[in-house]
Amino acid sequence: MVTVLRKVVQPLSKLFVVIDGLDEAANDVKDELLDELGSLPANILLTSRPMDLFSMNHMPDALRVTIEAHSEDIEAFVEGRVKKNSRLRSILGGKPELLQKLKTRIKDTSWGMFLVARLQMDAVHNCRSVNDLFKKLDGVPSGLDDMYHHTLQRILSQEEEDVGIASRVFFWLLHAFAPLSPEELQEALAVSFEDRSFDPGDIVPINVILSVCCGLVEVTKTAVRFIHYTAQEYIKAASFDALPGPPSPFLATTCLVYLTWHLTSLETSESSTEPETFQFAPYAYKYVAKHAQESQGDENHDSLSFSLPEDHASLPTLLGNLGRSLRQRFEQTGDLSDIDESISAQQKAMAIASEGRGDLVTQLSSLGATLLQRFEHTGILSDVSEAITTYRRMLALIPDGQPDIPALSNLGLSFVRRFDRTGNPSDIAEAISLQAKVLELTPDDHTDLPSRLTTLGSSLRRRYELTGELSDLYESISAHQKAVEITPEDHPCMPSFLSDLGFAYVRRFKRTGELLDSAEAISMQRRAIKLTPGGHTYLPARLNVLGSSLALRFEHTGYLPDIAEAIAVHQWAVKLTPAGHSHLPYRLNFLGRALARRFEHSGDIVDMAEAMVVQQNAVDLTPQGHPDLAIMLIDLGDLFLDRFRQTGCQSDVEDAVSTHQKVVQLTPHGHPDYPSRMNALGCALLARRVSCNGIHNDLDQSIACFKAAATCTFGPPHSRLSAAKYWAGTVLGYYPESLEIMTAFDVALGIVALIAGLEQTVQDRYTQLQDAADLALDAASIAFSQGRADKALDWLEEGGCLVWNQLNHLRSPLEILRTQNAELAQRIAEVSRKLENAGRSRVLYFDMPLAEKIGVEEETRNHLKLAREWDELLKMARAIPGFETFLKPSSVLLRHLPESGPIVVINAHRSRCDAIALLAGADEPIHIPLPNFTPDKANWCLETLRTVLKRRHLGPDSSRGIRPIAAAPKSHCLGIILRGLWDGVVKPILDALGFSRGNQSSGEVLPRIWWCPTGVMSFLPIHAAGVYDGPNIESVLDYAVSSYTPTVTMLTDLVRNSRHVEKDVSGLFLTNQPNPTGLPPIPGTTTEVRSIFTKAEEVGVRALKLEGSAVTVPKCLEYMADYSSIHLACHTFQKAADPLQSRFLFNEGFLDLGTIMHMNLKNGDLAFLSACHTSTGQEKFSDEAVHLAAGMLAAGYHRVVATMWVISDELALDVANDFYGHLLTHGTGRTDGTFDGSQSAYALHHAIQQLRLHLDSDSETALLTWVPYVHFGY
């Protein structure tokens, strides 16, 4: 104390010290303190009873002032007490001399001490007469100790029950751990120690309590206490026989008995609030364990049963209550010894109850909850396993038909907690099953329904994270949405429900990349924070979730304000988290991640340095063996690797490898993050291998990591795809001759189908496929280099036009399957039809009311169920002998090739260019290397073509119009492009196939050829390749009639399913839309459709012409089903961000690609799209053929005439006239009014040749006029 005093006063220039009651200190303390005070440069005031010995030895020169009560003060005190006491007032009333006598007697015998005077007055307050008053006064001693002794004798002379009350009051005042209010003391005294019971009817009024204590106790504003510390010291030294044994067991038992009654009252009360009589409950809950612990140290009492015999009926109940009280104190203090003792007490209670003495179900329930709580703080796996065993034992005791919902909920939660630690799929499955059962048993109006929905939703999200099963994620979102919908905004749980819903949206955003989900997540999390009070325990956690959502959106958009806010929010969360808090490492970890993301964007080394410090701190604060240590290490390892790549510091890459190795060691088998963690280790090993020039055996280890991650059967598909791409790329880079490359690409392309499954909308599937861009092209180039053209073809088909192939599978004829299993075929037909409809884009927008969003999510879940059923149906079909390849992409490629010409697949890869030719009757594909054409040439051709089109106003931003093509004197760029395609691609292919130049003037029929380009080649005019200047002009038009097909499978399906169109729908529907809002008019379309209609009428073809606003979009769709062919002359709109929204523009409304591709025209024949850009797809989906022409093929048309860029409104009329003129006179010769489009490729070839003759030139302007016309299909 002296040392502290010196430190406190040292910086002070002027010092005043006041010490009150110095005489109450121990003698050694007085000596030391007075010595020190005498040496201080201070003004000192001491108050004390006389202590001459000390003052003369230490401060002989100090000024002394004696303070004592004046006789007038004592007299005034006595007179005041008489006035307040009606009995004394009546005895002395009207007799001033008697009152003066009393005042004089008290004044003379109290020696100036108010405390003695007070006790004297208390001794005579109930006298009956004047003589009785002074007789009792004669017996009252004048010394303080004598006065206390006299008062105690008075107490003990009372009735036995009053003595017992006074004794218990003294016990509580001497041994309570906190001051007791009058109400608390009253309820404590009402507990019967003997009967172990509490009855509010036994509560004693406070004035009675004060009376039986004979003035030794008083009531202040907040507490009951002894009148003076000397009274407390005197009573402490006194001995009592009124209570059995030491005070600690008495006090502990009192608390336990009271708590038992309290818990029982709460369980039976209909009100959710505690009655006002529960005044003693807070003290009892807080200190019962401490009293019990003190009783354990008493030699005369057993540790827990203290004052109860082992066979006492109340023992298990009291032990159970003791355990629960210890648990409650643990929740306040965090002291693990409390929860350890809680479990010990409850285990003993359970053991006694197991013998048939007590409520075993209650004891098991309480023990299970405490075990689970200790697991959540320590991570000791045996605790949660024991909790599961305990809850199961409890549920087994409950009769059938009487489900214990809280127990089912707690058992489910225990499985969730164990799953969080181990990643065991059976645990989360069991949890979901139990939580679903709880939800089923919960009435719609039950107050716990929202929380139970949220619990189930969180478990479903966990299982999604393990398996990647989208249906779980959508079910999770739905459950969280319903919880939010039925919860009032001011409900205390609303912030938690909002935060959980936001977290589920985040998970879906990470899977789909749909920014609307990110916006929803952030919106929910902002609402949650707004509803959370400033000092709320969960505020930091909710800030953390918001920060991570903002950082994730930044990763997708690069929007800097998002990452700035994310960092600020994470910093706020860290600031609100006290040192030593178990969640501080997590919050530091997320802050470090956000800083790292900003560093990756800006390259600011300050962010990197701060991120390193924060992440290292997160790791250091996470105990070894903690289940989440791996999470902290992952980000630290990534930072080491990032810094190595920036600085080249060898120690950083070493740290990155060792850190990620530790992460993998800490990851249990089957953990959903196993693929991503193995992938990260592989990257670190590969980086070290490069930096060390092969000193380490890191290359093979990195390949092994990539392979293990790619081939595991669990974890998110995107993580596995990333690993498979690393695997293939690394083997290719270092072991280019290894056959393992083929295996790696096989695995990678197999995963692609998983990330773009039928359970998603078509637009979502296209979005997911961006991660797999060019993967099939990479794989095919490897297959070509190893002489496996067959494998190259399989991979190009498997990885190209995946969505179209899925759609074709849904529409495949099932006649052969019907002969084997009609019921299965019918079910496949029904599910395929439903899947087509479900695959349409669902309308969902940010401000949509929650009820409507829930409806959309319901549609999504039904879609997912259909996709799962489709997979099961395919398995069943493929199990039938002979149907092993049912609806597999490449199973019939060589069986249904067109007889009239080859299909040529062209693959332009960065390493090589190749073609594959498929000919009817051939046993295997023909590999045609294209060594003189390179990817650089292909890219140059595409970029140059774009430049030409933009300069000539023919690009994507232009539309069909009446103005001529913009002039560009002496430009020959398009001619150079076509010459390059001829020399490097088309002529070598024609030569390899033995094609010779035809003599069309003699009526020779040219063979057909179908081009199936991939990648960048999909945007180049292969059908027009040729030499258009100089003496030796020639082009592909001289050798063959060209068509395109998005995939080989799409064309072979058309060949396989070719049939005559039914007579009642055979015909031509024509419409033009010359005046759409906001675009230039195209009057030529009116002349065009009228001219064609006239030709059709002349030859008796069934035809219908509706111009402009005479047809609406819905009616157009009806006519497309009623007529086998359509001629559509209009403007179009290409939407790069969402290709499915590319559309034909009508005078009123539009017809988009998303709608077209979901049509299923059983009798579709020809679609002539006299519009601009109808075969122009998007480069990011180059292998998916996302354009209007392909959509028409998907809708059911067998052949389509389309355009690659803007066409002339005037010359489009000439092309259409020549096309139909040839088609209507060179068809199959029908005279029954039907329309036949099978010769459409020849008709277009003829029309283009006629246009070339009309232009009488092969200038660039002329080429730009006829080259855009293309033919798709059979």
From TrEMBL:
Pfam families: CHAT, WHD_GPIID. It comes from the Eukaryota. Residues 814-841 form a coiled coil. Keywords: Coiled coil. InterPro entries: CHAT_dom, GPIID_WHD, TPR-like_helical_dom_sf. Residues 165-237 form the GPI inositol-deacylase winged helix domain. SUPFAM superfamilies: TPR-like. Residues 978-1273 form the CHAT domain. Gene3D superfamilies: Tetratricopeptide repeat domain. This is CHAT domain-containing protein.
